[in-house]
Amino acid sequence: MAAVTPLLSTRGLSKSFGGLRAVHAVDFDLPEGQIRALIGPNGAGKTTFVSLLCGRITADEGNVHFAGRDVTALPAHRRIQAGMAYTFQITSVFPRLSLHENIALAARRRLGHDREGVRAAVGHALDMVGLAGRANQLAGDLSYGHQRLVEIAMGLAQAPRLLILDEPTQGLSDSEISEFNALIRSIASETTVLLIEHNMQVVMELAEFITVLNFGEVLAEGEPEAIRRNPAVQEAYLGTAHA
Amino acid sequence: MDFGPYLFLASLEGAVTAAVLALTAAGLSLVFGIMRVVNVAHGEFFMLGAVIAWWVASLAGGHPAVGFVLALVIAPLIVAAIAALADFLVLKRVQYDPERTIVATIGLLYIIQQTVLMTYGPEARPVEAPFNHRIYFPWFGYSTYKFFVIGAAIALLLGLWLVMTRTRLGIVLRATQLDRETALAFAIPVERVYALTFGLGAGLAALGAVLVVPIQQAHYLMGGDPLLLSFIVVIIGGLGSLAGTVVAAVLIGMSDGIISVFFSPTLAKIIATLAVALVLVFRPQGLFGKAAR
Amino acid sequence: MTPTAKAFLLHGGLVLALVAGHFILPEYHQGNLARIMALAVYAMGYNVLFGYSGLLSLGHAMFFSAGMYGMGLSVQHLGFGAGPAFVCGILAGVVLATAVGVLALRTTGVAFMIVTLMFSQAVFLTILYFTPWTRGDEGFVIQPVDRMLFGIDLSDATYRYFAALVLFAIVMLATSRLIQAPFGRVLIAIRENEERTRMLGYDVYRHKLGAVILSGTISAVSGAAYGLLFGYVGASFASVQYSILPLLWVLLGGAGTIVGPFLGTLFMFYLIDLTSSITTAYMLLAGAALVLLTLFAPEGLAGSFRRRLAPWLP
Hints:
Chain A: GO terms for molecular function: ATP binding; ATP hydrolysis activity. Chain B is mostly helical.
């Protein structure tokens, strides 16, 4: 594996807000095709870290390489164009637009004026999240759980090389969560997935590899079983309020 | 006249402009600082102050000082009441949404201005100064009333500063400015604070107008310039900063007085409006504000 | 019927009704309608930015007057004919809109409103400052001899009516195509949720800049056309009032709808026309309308119609 260049890697990535070191000197490698979970106690810097990856905030130090090039200096939209897709932790859809248009916006950036192609991509993405019958509803009229699925469908419709999901199962019911797990497994052959997740069941079921952040630094990395048994990880979780 | 005395005269005129401007802009700054809304009708509250001052003074009769003193008390109160009413009827109902508030206050601007046109008429009318002695410098005489304007403005601004820093009301206002939600949690009646702030802001503009109306006549279109200049001052001084506003008012007032002696007033205004736009574009925290984050 | 077909019928029907208007209406109202159509083009230009992109400008008079003076000054001082002068007006609008867009789009929200207001005020004052060339407040007349376009005399009431109608129809068609195109769809997305749009990989700044340039250019087209059709160029068209009016028209008619700008212009024009025969303080009505719309009908006429009866309305 060492010979293969990872899809995404960071070296010495750091970000402070005021005096607070939100992310500090993180070295991170994500090989192509993996489902990676990023976990850690509340305030460990997970969301800050992925925001640095996709360019929503700029790093103080360090660099981000994606798909073979240094993207550290690129603005967010250029990184997305390079093949990242990001779903928000707090649902962020276009509430006054139809589901179809929400997804079409995601697909159109890559497909442009190809109307048929966009229509097919929208149908496919809605199918995958099980919202096919609702294409003409306004996104704002959906339940919270369904809006999260719309968000994921928007990620899928971009056909990204890397899909970053920030707490995707928050607010989903148990049955929706198992559908979500199946969905992620089904796309894993085409897409690398980076998953921030609090729900340990989802993490253990999906992740092939886990990175644990604590106080903005990498505390441990390894396969799910190794992480589960790691005493430092247990302490980090037990030492704070369990999420 | 030689250059020196000329500059001296220009500085005196500038100081008068700066004094009135500081009062007017302080009102705008207060409203923006506490309520986070831009009041486009601010200039019309200034104009209302001047028109009501004329009305009070002409009803009072007797010695000009009687009418003037009455106007100085009554006009700001009436204007403040009108503004508080506008806050209650309009601004509160658009939930102080910044963009909708601007559109609504543009509407208020025309309502006030055109109502004055219909009632007071298109004439410009003077209010007699309460006293009008002249001090004679070696080169020219100068009205003592204008010195009074400068002194009164300084006194009023000091008063405002004392209210903001030393009284319970000031604490309540500043608490609301810092954080609306927390203020609500501490049982501060935010709605009433907003109405009061809007009234106080308009009242300050009216005060400035009453002071200036013996020098400059009352006219229904007189609100445009104070609005523009107050915008300039508040933006250059840093949005919502009272101290910055006063410093900027002195700077702009003085330079306006001096520049318009040497340049055409239109050119001076072009430069000023462009300067404001560019300050907002490149230094939105104002020239004197600290960079935010 | 598909939404597209309904929209086509509605817009086509409006154009046909306006054609019929020429044969049915008394001359006085024809003159008014010609003005309303030319001004509705201005409102449609404003709507591209405000209604579809969610950017509230308080300075569109600068674009309207850039078109008007670009046209008028090139007739007056360069001896251009109507056609080249019209192009000059449009170019003036493109250049100004690009420059203003690049600067003003560094700001957002309230700051954007104030920056556009200030730039527009600077343009207005500049027109006054160069009074020897622009004749300032007084303005100047474009002689009928300079208003011949492709052999058509635009000072003739009938030709004028149809010239305004053709322009109106073209711009209405163009804006409705624009919002169906991917570019327009992204503008709407930016209006609805800017951060989400950026995180879908769209260059938000470039789209907004495109919207400012398009909107400014359409406004300039309207200004140049208005000057040519009615033969007068004056500084009052650059004043704050002419920045507020398109906002009022679009708010009244319905922001983010295709027919809204026309409806708003039509209603406000006649309201002011009726009021100004009673009092000089006719802008009182505009003020009251702004306050009432903000309070009770932020969607405007076409917007309420869309919400209650016709969700297909573009």
